[in-house]
Amino acid sequence: MSVDLARRQGVVELKQFTRSREAVVFTMAFPVIMILIFASIFDDEIAPGVNYTQYFITGMIATGLMTVGFQSLAIQIPIERDKGVLKRFRGTPMPKWVYFAGKVFMVAGIGVAEVALLLAVSIGFFDLEPPASVGKWLTFAWVSVLGLSACTLCGIAFSSVPRNARGATAVVTPVALVLQFISGVFFVFTDLPTWMQQVAAIFPLKWMCQGLRSVFLPDSFAAAEPAGSWELGKVALILSAWCVVGLVVCIRTFTWQNKYSR
């Protein structure tokens, strides 16, 4: 019965998302638009057999997952909190975890659609080579799942930071943009200042980008990474650690009504 409630809540969340044209355009279309713009302008070779377009596309796939998991939830939940949606939900006999399960269901559905769309555009228009082996497809799967899980939990946790719904976008969007600039999405990671690389290495997006580069770029490019290898074990460890951190912060800080309006 509870599982069915979670599924129904997830369907409701997906319907609400698709009915908001602004959310659909920003979440789904923004990474595609960025790929179309940047990949059309920059096509320089950054390493033997690797051009900027290939490098940038892997970063935008990671960014798409971050947008779906972190950015959308960190903005959406404060809006629902301000509108009293969370307070009303808490007053129902429905288990609290069903609300979060619905969000996870929504993020998973949108995340799959986002990745499929980005891959279709990248492979169809910019000659991105799909993963060449079963092993690379498996790496693609676990990096995406771990990365999306970490971003989802961090998004729920960060939703307690904005003081109200009006400030949510202003608080969350700069954080997401800064992470993109320092994590090797728009620029080759090793071209960034050392201190910037060290800051980026704290957060999930850098490791999501690195893990996806191991899937779509030639193995020879691993030598161009800071450690001279893909460090997939470290990618898995740090993304898993962020899942734990996000979950702990969610449990300790999540509130069902705006604490600043009391």
UniProtKB/TrEMBL annotation:
Residues crossing the lipid bilayer are 23-42, 54-77, 97-125, 137-158, 170-189, 235-254
Where the record annotates domain ABC transmembrane type-2, the positions are 22-257
Record-given protein name: Transport permease protein
Starting at the broadest rank, the lineage of the source organism is:
Bacteria, Bacillati, Actinomycetota, Actinomycetes, Micromonosporales
One GO cellular component term of this record is: ATP-binding cassette (ABC) transporter complex
Subcellular location per the Swiss-Prot or TrEMBL entry: Cell membrane; Membrane
Q: Which PANTHER family match?
A: ABC-TYPE MULTIDRUG TRANSPORT SYSTEM, PERMEASE COMPONENT, NODULATION PROTEIN J
Record keywords, A-Z? Antibiotic resistance, Cell membrane, Membrane, Transmembrane, Transmembrane helix, Transport
The membrane-topology field of this record reads: Multi-pass membrane protein
Q: Which Pfam families match?
A: ABC2_membrane
In the record, biological process GO terms are: response to antibiotic
